[in-house]
Amino acid sequence: MRQALITGGTRGIGRAIVKRLTREGWRVAFTFREKDGAAASLASETGAIPLKNPALDEAQAGALLDETIMRLGHVDALVLNAGVSHSSLLSEMSLAAWDALMAVNLRSAFLVSRAFIPHMVSRKAGSLLFISSIWGIWGASCEAAYAASKAGLIGLARSLAQELGPSGIRVNALAPGVIRTDMLGDYGQDDLQALAAGTPLGRLGEPGEVAAAAHFLLSDKASYITGQVLGVDGGFM
User: Fold this and answer.
1) What are the extents of the domains in the chain?
2) What CA–CA distance (Å, rounded) separates 161 from 23?
């Protein structure tokens, strides 16, 4: 049985990936920070294992590795999905807000991947998947910090693909477009309609569509795919 850890699994894209992988027969663990009720509900629905660990420092990342291995035995796939958003002009963003966003979106991905890589190298197998964003490719007004963090994930994924390929480990990234999750909470209805209208497919994306792409990249069907960034964006540019 394939086994995976997904960071940030209680909502949006992370939740959809947990549900998709368990439906496909994977054994899954997922991390969460605060939403105990949502985590318990998802665990009950899917059989996935909830792990309350934000992995924001080295000790937490190490503890996450230990608990994951204890619960799963080994890890075939690591999905770095945990993330937060921030919308403002960069000139109005505080240093504290910048640091908090980078800690979750980029620093945690570094800490968790660094902790788990030796385990995968020892097995000469595994797959890492970073959940980035189209903003990490194109940038976006009032989303500079978020875009910078997501661009960092793309650089990390492409570099690790080269580092880890000789060990049989694949590393890819997804760049979702405008997906219908609670991260769109700051957008008004007119903004959402404009985003949908600006997408060639004429609608917003659904978390399940991103999860389907994640499952593909983690599966044997993508066995010769590494170092790639797959857009799930309806053609949005």
Assistant:
1) 3-228
2) 28
Please report the sign of the dihedral spanned by the C-alpha atoms of residue 158, residue 159, residue 165, residue 169: negative
Among 26, 130, 146, 236, which one carries the catalytic annotation?
A: 146
Question: pLDDT (tens digit, 9 = 90+) per residue, 47-76?
Answer: 999 999 999 999 999 999 999 999 999 999
| Residue type at 81 in one-letter notation | N
Whole-model pTM: value is 0.96
Q: What's the sign of the alpha-carbon dihedral 94, 98, 99, 104?
A: positive
Could you read off the pLDDT of 119-171 as tens digits, one per residue?
999 999 999 999 999 999 999 899 999 999 999 999 999 999 999 999 999 99
Phi, psi angles (nearest 5°) of residue 26: -80, 150
Q: Which CATH architecture describes the domain 3-228? A: 3-Layer(aba) Sandwich (3.40)
Write out 90-147 in H/E/C secondary structure.
HHHCCHHHHHHHHHHHHHHHHHHHHHHHHHHHHHCCEEEEEECCCHHHHCCCCCHHHH
Alpha carbon separation from 1 to 8, 29, 42, 76, 168 (Å, rounded): 22, 13, 20, 9, 19
Active site residue 146: yes
